[in-house]
Design brief:
The radius of gyration is 19 Å and the shape is globular. About 5% of the residues have low confidence. It has about 325 residues and is an alpha+beta fold. The strands form three sheets. The chain has a six-stranded mixed β-sheet with strand order 3-4-5-6-7-8. A five-stranded mixed β-sheet has the order 10-9-11-13-12, with helices on both faces. A two-stranded antiparallel sheet has the order 1-2. The chain folds into two domains: about 200 residues, Fructose-1,6-Bisphosphatase, Chain A, domain 1, CATH 3.30.540; about 120 residues, D-Maltodextrin-Binding Protein, domain 2 (3-Layer(aba) Sandwich). Helix content is about 35%, strand content about 20%. Helix 1 packs antiparallel against helix 2, helix 4 runs antiparallel to helix 5 and helix 7 runs parallel beside helix 8. This is 3'(2'),5'-bisphosphate nucleotidase 1. Belongs to the inositol monophosphatase superfamily. One of its GO terms (biological process) is phosphatidylinositol phosphate biosynthetic process.
Length: about 325
C-alpha cells in the first residue's frame, strides 16, 4: 500500500475533528445561557445559536479541505463570511491509519454527499438549558434538593444531544461520525466531556463498546416529543417488554449499539436524511440495519427529498422480525419515497 490515504478516509478523518469542534461549540453556547432560540415550523422544531454556529463550522471546515463535495445541512442559513475561529483544520491520524475498504478507495470528492445535523436533539438541548439556568441555581445543585432534581433531569436531557456528519456515495450511507458533546457530563467539572464515534461498513465502528440488548426482551426506543396515534399503534404492535422515549435519532442509534434497546421505531414523518445518514452508516458497520417502516432502504443522493416520509425502523439484529410486526394500517398511513 503506497501513496496518500483515500479521499473518503481523509474526509472521515477531518469530519471526526470537525464534529469534535462542533461539540465544543454546542457546549460553549449552553454554558453561556444565551441560546438565541428561533422557531422554524413550530415549538417542537427549534433552532439555536448552537445549531447555526456548529453548522457554519462544519460546512466551512469541510469545504475548505474538500471543495468539490456536496454538503446538505439541516439549517437553512444565509451565505456569510465565516469567522476563522469556527474553522477546524485538524484530522484524526488514527482514522488515516485504517485501510479503506477496496470498494471506496477510488472515490472522488465530487462523488460524495455529506449530510449534516449540527445539533440533533435541539428540543432537549433547550429544555436542559432552561433547567441548568433556572433561578434556583441548578448549575450548582445541592443533594436531595429540588435543585438537584432539576440538575439530574438536565443531565439526562443533554445525553440526547448529538452532532451528526454522514457521508454517502451513490445513495448509500458509507461513513458516519457522531459526537456526543455532553458525554460524561454527570461526572462533574473535572471530567473530560464528550465522545466521538465513527463507523464505515466494511471497516467497522469505533469509539464505543458494541453490546446487544437482552435477547429475551423487546426493548423499543421511540420519540419523546413527536408521538401520535400511528406511532403509538406501531410501538404497541411490537409487543414490547419496555419502551424508552428519548430525543434525537443519533441518540436512539446509540441506544441500539450499546445494548439499551432492541429496535428504534418511529412510524411517522419528522425524521430527515441528515438525522439518519451518519447513524445508519455506524449501525450498518456493526451488522445492523435502518430502513423505512416497509423495510425499504432510504437513499442519500444529493437530489432526494429530505424527509424520511415512511418513518424509521432500525435494529442491531432481527430486523425482518420487526418489519413483519408493522401493522397494515401503519403501512397504509406511511407512503414510501
Amino acid at each position: 500500500m503506497s501513496g496518500s490515504p483515500a479521499v473518503v478516509m481523509r474526509l472521515v478523518a477531518s469530519a471526526y475533528t470537525v464534529a469534535e469542534k462542533a461539540g465544543a461549540i454546542v457546549r460553549k453556547v449552553l454554558h453561556s445561557g444565551e441560546l438565541g432560540i428561533v422557531e422554524k415550523t413550530g415549538a417542537n422544531d427549534l433552532q439555536t445559536l448552537a445549531d447555526r454556529l456548529a453548522q457554519q463550522s462544519i460546512c466551512a471546515s469541510l469545504y475548505r479541505r474538500f471543495p468539490k463535495i456536496t454538503i446538505i445541512g439541516e439549517e437553512d442559513l444565509p451565505a456569510e463570511e465565516i469567522k476563522e475561529d469556527l474553522i477546524e483544520n485538524g484530522h484524526s491520524e488514527e482514522i488515516l491509519q485504517k485501510t479503506c475498504p477496496a470498494e471506496y478507495s477510488g472515490l472522488k470528492e465530487e462523488e460524495l454527499v455529506v449530510w449534516v445535523d449540527p445539533l440533533d436533539g435541539t428540543k432537549e438541548y433547550t429544555e436542559a438549558s432552561r433547567l441548568l439556568h433556572h433561578p434556583t441555581g441548578a448549575l450548582t445543585p445541592h443533594k436531595g434538593s429540588d435543585t438537584s432534581q432539576l440538575h439530574s433531569t438536565a443531565l439526562w436531557l443533554l445525553d440526547n444531544v448529538t452532532v451528526l456528519i454522514g457521508i454517502a456515495y451513490e445513495g448509500k450511507a458509507i461513513a458516519g461520525v457522531i459526537n456526543q458533546p455532553f458525554y460524561n457530563y454527570q461526572l462533574g467539572s473535572g471530567a473530560e466531556l464528550g465522545r466521538t464515534m465513527w463507523g464505515m461498513p466494511g471497516l467497522g465502528a469505533f469509539g464505543f463498546t458494541l453490546k446487544e440488548a437482552p435477547g429475551d426482551r423487546r426493548i423499543i426506543t421511540t420519540t419523546r416529543s413527536h408521538s401520535n396515534k400511528v406511532v403509538t399503534e406501531c410501538v404497541d404492535a411490537m409487543e414490547p417488554h419496555e419502551v424508552i422515549k428519548v430525543g434525537g435519532a443519533g441518540n436512539k442509534i446509540i441506544q441500539l449499539v450499546e445494548g439499551r434497546a432492541s429496535a428504534y421505531v418511529f412510524a411517522s414523518l419528522g425524521c430527515k436524511k441528515w438525522d439518519t445518514c451518519a447513524p445508519e452508516a455506524i449501525l450498518t458497520a456493526v451488522g445492523g440495519k435502518l430502513t423505512d417502516m416497509h423495510g425499504n432502504a432510504y437513499r442519500y443522493d444529493a437530489n432526494v427529498k429530505h424527509m424520511n416520509s415512511a418513518g424509521v425502523l432500525a435494529t442491531l439484529r432481527n430486523h425482518e422480525y420487526y418489519v413483519s410486526r408493522v401493522p397494515q394500517s401503519v403501512r397504509q398511513a406511511l407512503k414510501t419515497d
